[in-house]
Structures are given as structure tokens and as C-alpha cells.
Amino acid sequence: MAYSSSIYGTKRIALACFALLLVALFLFPNQIQGLLQYLGGPVGYAVGIPLEAIASIDAGIADRWEQYVALQGVREENQQLRKEMEWLRGQQSQLREAVAATERLTALLHFKEQALPTMVAAQVIGRDATNRYRAIILNKGESDGIKPDMGVVTPAGVVGRVVKTTGATSVVLLVTDPYSAIAGLIQRTRDEGIVEGTQQGLAHLKYIPLLSTLRDGDRVVTSGLIGDFPRGLVIGTITHIDKQEGALFQSAELTPEVEVGRVEEVLVIQMSYGQATKAGVGADLLEKSAP
Amino acid sequence: MKFLFYLTLVLLLVPLQTTLLPHVSVWNIKPDVGLVAAALVGLFAGELEGLLVGCAIGWVLSLFSAGELWVSLLTNGGVGLLAGFLGRQVSQVTSFSLGVGILLVSLVSGLCVAMSLTSFDLSQIGWMVESIVFPQACFDGAVGAGCYWFLSRRLNLTHLRTE
């Protein structure tokens, strides 16, 4: 009898707790979300310790596997890379010429030299805990100055954007996720659009003007309109153009430049060119106004 | 002692879910071990513990996901609570029945999340159910059944359930 009454007591407490939680979430969704995020900051440190330990063991095993076991096709890959390197050398010499010309023109126009963006290097220690998002987890968080909405890149191009942080970790929504949106620019035609991820794990550029002369193989870079990414970082290459009759805009499918599923190290942009320049100007002004 | 066990469980579930399970994912789908753990805790320890541990697991896991913080908290807490209720009603639990139960619960919670994420857009919901929710539910059911089978061989589960 006492046993069954204690069961009913527990049941009631459990149901009351759940009902209270539901009511709180429906009545104050933003406050509860903010509270959960705030409490999550220190929890991130505690969870970060086993997470980093297991990620480093995992990375060690993966390195061993790649170095000793998975050597099939290395010779073909080597030949392919040599060819690619020769082609890139040619490109490099052309680009050097272009850089020299740009420097001369910049000097002529008296442009203020742009400050380099401030970046923080981070390691990928995991993937999204659910299957619903394409996201990666980094081993740097709030304590390293990382905040939501900061852009994440590799030397090859754009990876995504920070959406959530804890004390020691941060979550980056990849450019291939359907919920991701980045302002893009077709490098050749200078037409702007929005790059969104697709369900197939690629990306597409939306809202391209109808009169744009884009073609397959055109590169899409960040437009720099939103502060998170500086202008000119490669997002991907156009592989298919979709132009429907009666539509107001064109759209195009992209293959992302970075293979986001295999990325291991990234750079988080803490301050882009524009912000850095503004900060620099601000500092100059402060210096001048100081007595 | 129990608190320490649950704390360790929550701390270890994160690296398991985010670092190790992506290696065994099939078509980029991995099981939700948080949901399975919440169901097992609810089944063996009762509604209240199922709810509290489920909520804790859901909240900590959602800190490592791009999604909203309350989604996993509510679904895992609800699963723990439901498993606690069912655990008291059902006299004989087998690996198969538990697997089917987890499959159904995962399907329902996945469907609710899909509806909230896609704002009831039917084509999007259809795609999510076909490519994420259903395969994950099957995976969750299989993992839950496997865990129960493993635990039932190692521990006296009847004793645990009536404790």
C-alpha cells in the first residue's frame, strides 16, 4: 500500500515537473532559451574535457589509419597532385603580376591599406549531436573570444558560421546546411545573391538577377556585405544554372570549395577587414582626441 | 552514487554522440544515444528519474547541436517520463518489444521536431521523415534493443525494475 502510494507520488511529481517545464517554455521561450544557454557556458568546460580527450584519441587512430593502412590509390593521387601543382604554379605567376599591378594602382589612388582580419585557429572535435543539422564542433569557445555569428574559414574557402558557444567549445553551422545563408558574389560578373545549403549537402546561389551572364565554372565568393565574412573568400563553383520562364531571378547550384565533411582545422574570423579598419580608425580618432 | 553515475553518463554521452558515432553512421544517419539512454533510465529507474535525466541529457546534447536548446530537452525528457510510465505497466519487457517501443517514440518525437522545424511544409516534412526521421528511428530501436539485450545478460534487470 505504502509502495503504491509512493509510486503515485513520484508520478505526480514527474508529471507536474514536465507540465511546469512545458508551460515555462511556452510562456517565456526566449528567457528560458537564454537561461539554458547561460547555464550551458560552464557545462561546456566540464563536457569539453572528455570530448577533447576522445577527439584526440580518435584523431590519432585516424592518422595511423591514413599513414599505414589506407595507402591504396596514393600513386595515382600523387600524379594528379603533381599535375595540379604545375597548373597552380602557372596561375601563381599570373597572380603575382596582378598583385603588383593592384599595388601600383592602389598607391596611385592613395587607398588606405586594409587591416588584416583577426583570426583564431581551432580544431574540429566533433559533429552535430543530432542528424537534423550539418554542423561541426570546435575546441574553442567563449573564453577564446568566439561569439555567435562569427565566420569560419579554411585557407581554401568558407566553411560556415558560429551559431552557438559554450565556455570551451563552439558549434559551426556548415555552408551546406539548408538553414545556412551567406551573402555571395559571382566573381566574374559581380552579381550578388544569397548562398544557401541544400538537402543533398551542396549549396545554391539564389536571387541572381535575370540579366546576369553567369555560366558553369564561375566562382562564387563572399560579398562582404554582412560583417561576418570579408569580401572575396571563395564559397564554391557554379555547376548548374536554373533559369525558369516567368521567374524574377535565376538560381545556380554550387559545389563548395571546402570539403566540409572532412575539415579538421579551421580559422574563426573574429574581426573582418571592414571591422578591423573601423576599429583602427576609431583607435586613431581616440589617439588624436586624447589630450 | 546514483548522481555520480548519471553525471558520468551525461558527460560520456556527448563525445560518444558527437565524435565516435559519426564513424558508424549509415547514409550520414547516426542513432540518438541520448534518447535511448533516457528511455532505459526511465524504464529501470522510474518516471521522475527518467524525466530529470532525460532533460539533462537532452539539454547537454543540444549545447553541441546547431538546433534550438529546448527541442532535445523536451523530447528526451518526455521519452524518459513515458518509459517510466510504461515500465510500471508492462510486466515483461523483451529486447524486441523495447526496440519497437523506442522506434515508435523516436518516430513520433522526430515527426514533432520535423513539423516545428519546417513550419508544417508537407514536402519538407516528407523529405525529413524519409531521409532522417525514419532511418534514425530504426537505428534507435536497434541500438535500444541491443543495449537492453546486453544489460539483461549482465545484470538482474527484474530486480532493478522492482527496486
Question: What does it look like?
Answer:
The complex is a heterodimer of chains A (291) and B (163). With 291 residues, chain A is α+β, with helices and mostly antiparallel strands. Chain A has 3 domains: 2-68; 72-109; 118-272, Beta Barrel (Thrombin, subunit H). Chain A has helices at 2-27, 29-69, 74-109, 273-289; strands at 118-127, 135-138, 151-154, 157-165, 170-174, 181-186, 192-197, 203-209, 219-222, 234-242, 249-256, 265-271. In chain A, the strands form 2 sheets. Chain A has a 6-stranded antiparallel β-barrel. Chain A has a 6-stranded antiparallel barrel with strand order 6-7-8-11-10-9. Residues 276-291 of chain A have low confidence and may be disordered. Chain B is mostly helical and 163 residues long. Helix content of chain B is 81%, strand content 0%. Chain B has helices spanning 2-20, 33-45, 47-62, 69-89, 95-118, 122-154, 157-162. Chain B starts with a helix and ends with a helix. Classes of the chains: A alpha+beta (291), B mainly alpha (163). Chains A and B meet through helix 1, helix 2 and strand 1 of A and helix 1, helix 3, helix 4 and helix 6 of B.
Please identify the oligomeric state.
Answer: heterodimer
CATH architecture of the largest domain in chain A: Beta Barrel
Please tell me what the overall shape of chain A is.
globular
* Strand arrangement across the biggest beta sheet of chain A: 1-2-5-4-3-12
Helix content of chain B: over 70%
Helix content of chain A: 40-55%
Q: How many strands of chain B?
A: 0
Counting helices, strands and paired strands, the structural category of chain A is alpha+beta
Question: In the CATH hierarchy, what is the superfamily of the largest domain in chain A?
Answer: Rod shape-determining protein MreC, domain 2
* Mean pLDDT reading of chain A: 79
The CATH class of chain B: Mainly Alpha
Based on the structure given, which CATH architecture of chain B is correct?
Orthogonal Bundle
The helix tally of chain B amounts to 7
Query: What is the strand content of chain B?
Result: under 5%
How many separate structural domains of chain A? 3
Strand content of chain A: 25-35%
**Unreliable stretches covering 5 or more consecutive residues of chain A:** 276-291
The fold-level CATH name of chain B is: Arp2/3 complex 21 kDa subunit ARPC3
